[in-house]
Amino acid sequence: MIALQELIKETLTRVWHVPILRVLSVSPARYADIRDRLTKLKGFPPGDGTISTELRTLRLKNLIEQQPQPNTRRKAWALTDLGRTTLRLVDQFEGLTNPDKVQAEERRFGMSMDELQARAAAIDPTVPHPARRYDYLLGGKDNFAADRESAHEIEAVMPTVRLAALENRGFLQRAVKFLATQGVTQFLDVGTGIPTSPNTHEVAQAINPASRVVYVDNDPIVLSHARALLMSAPGGKTAYIDADLRDPGSILNSPQLRSTLDLSQPVGLLLVAVLHFIRDDEDPTSIATALIDALPPDSWVVVSHATFDHLPSDMLSKVEAPNRDGRFRARSRDELAGLLQGLDLVAPGIQSVAQWWAEQAPQPRPASEDVAIYGAVGRVMNS
């Protein structure tokens, strides 16, 4: 497969490639509809044979495909997953020709434009990624076939995994709202994932528009969506760090963090559905400790973590089967408590995310075994 960065550059050099992709981003279309939409979009029709040639080229690049249409034997052209991703990245970088805009973008992300483009395009659609799989489980569209297949494999052994994803998201929002009502105006959201509204800054800034949020993730597709995370309320501020939780120093020493958050004042650290992707040999305790120790007293830590505590024993081997690479590590209540030592946990302590402050969540509440995720919120004490 052609590298995505090269694919983007090549797409930008073809006069009709981007217009065709934009036309098909609205809805699938047959040849005549594409021609009419292009004429309306550009103000003049393509030359004879141009559309057919460009459609064939785009199909060879796996940017478009023909899909059956309901109630007819005819097919229409539509964007592939790769086509949607390519168009989004094209839209992200196409307009950055003004030097001032380029410099502003470089300052915003803490890397050169070449580095930013290369990193955002470093997407491998053939390998499933937790952020994209989570997006799919939440009903999003920014995922590839490999992500969906991975989700389906998990769903085959745990049919309630979509419910678990939704409950985890609800816990995040309730926890952020709680922290904001406690006066927290600074948040560090590690393992952000693909934007799903309401995002952390939207929840926090709805309570205090001056809230500041730094998002952290290491998936290039999340970076490609980062502008949605940077749409702060006028009185607040958001930033994005392209970094890996396994290297907490790269987060804590980032200029984006230092220019956005004041680490002498309380911070809400969010480690939501991310620590279970840290293996034991990667020392999750040291990682969590490094981040928590960097926080001043009266900061807060929000954690959610997958668990098998509530599952019947005959299910354990089945739910472990999709974890062939060993990247996923569910933990017990006691193991999670070990990661949170020194924090003053808010009642009800370590609890199913479905039951954490259940009275503020939609009713009725699902069973803990159907969600299989613990949640906890704790305050950083004076040392």
Task: Describe the fold and architecture.
The chain has helices spanning 4-13, 17-26, 31-42, 50-60, 81-94, 99-109, 113-120, 130-137, 145-157, 161-181, 200-207, 220-224, 226-229, 248-252, 255-260, 284-293, 313-320, 333-339, 368-371; strands at 64-68, 75-79, 186-190, 212-217, 237-242, 268-272, 300-306, 343-345, 351-352, 373-380. It has 19 helices and ten strands. It folds into two domains: 4-94, Orthogonal Bundle (Arc Repressor Mutant, subunit A); 152-380, Rossmann fold, CATH 3.40.50. The strands form two sheets. Strands 3, 4, 5, 6, 7, 8, 9 and 10 form an eight-stranded mixed sheet that branches. Strands 1-2 form a two-stranded antiparallel ribbon. The longest helix is centred in the middle third of the chain and has 21 residues, at 161-181. Helix 1 crosses helix 5 (81-94), helix 2 crosses helix 3 (31-42) and helix 2 packs across helix 5 (81-94). It is globular, with a radius of gyration of 23 Å. It is of the alpha/beta class.
